[in-house]
Design a protein that fits this description.
Elements: E1 2-6, E2 9-23, E3 26-39, E4 45-56, E5 61-67, E6 75-76, E7 81-90, E8 94-105, E9 111-122
Antiparallel strand pairs: 1-2, 2-3, 3-7, 4-5, 4-6, 4-8, 8-9
Amino acid sequence: MVQQVTKGIKISVETSFEGTFYKDYKIQFAYGYKVTIENQSKDTVQLFARHWIIKDALNNETIVSGEGVIGKKPVLKPGEAHTYTSGCLLTSPFGAMRGHYNMTNLNTTKKFQVVIPTFKLSAPFALN
């Protein structure tokens, strides 16, 4: 698990390898990840967008940006947390993801970014 706190918002990420399959005659490596967003600040905040940079071992890079997470824009009061799961596909057995969430402090209406720390994606059979 990796964790990081930015402006009182703690991000924790756990990953899992989900398996392989073929798509368009190419092998794909499927990974899942569980993110917990915990508000350790004294203000109420809302997540309104996400930005991911996904890289595989072949140096292929995919950028994913959009509103909310899994169709939601959670509001977190002090001490509250939001957990969700998602996944991605890579064309190699190793990779990494990083990014940020765009959030608004609902007490001050100021927008800010919360860092999603880099986390590794690796197929267990490919490890030494």
